[in-house]
Specification:
single chain; alpha+beta; 2 helices; 59% helix; 14% strand
């Protein structure tokens, strides 16, 4: 079995554009929205005992993980644009 096998994944131009739009929205709008919610939660007093703030930090971690993994393609894959 070859360890250099490549996987070809088909994606339409529309699918590629949608993926790019989603990534841009996450990087801009969602980060901004979450930053505003974090700022509000921080104003609620004690940071050590603030369950809403902890939940927002977890949401932030998930958002950043999604942003990081969204553009990633499986290792060794080749993308072919279909029409």
């Amino acid at each position: 079995m070859s360890t250099n096998s490549r996987v070809t994944m088909m994606i339409t131009a529309e699918g590629y554009d949608a993926r790019c739009r989603e990534l841009e929205a996450l990087r801009t709008q969602e980060r901004r929205r979450l930053a505003e919610r974090l700022a509000e939660a921080r104003q609620d007093g004690d940071l050590a005992d603030n369950p809403a703030l902890r939940e927002l930090f977890e949401e932030h971690e998930l958002l950043e993980r999604h942003i990081t993994t969204l553009p990633a393609f499986p290792r060794g894959s080749a993308w072919a644009m279909s029409t």
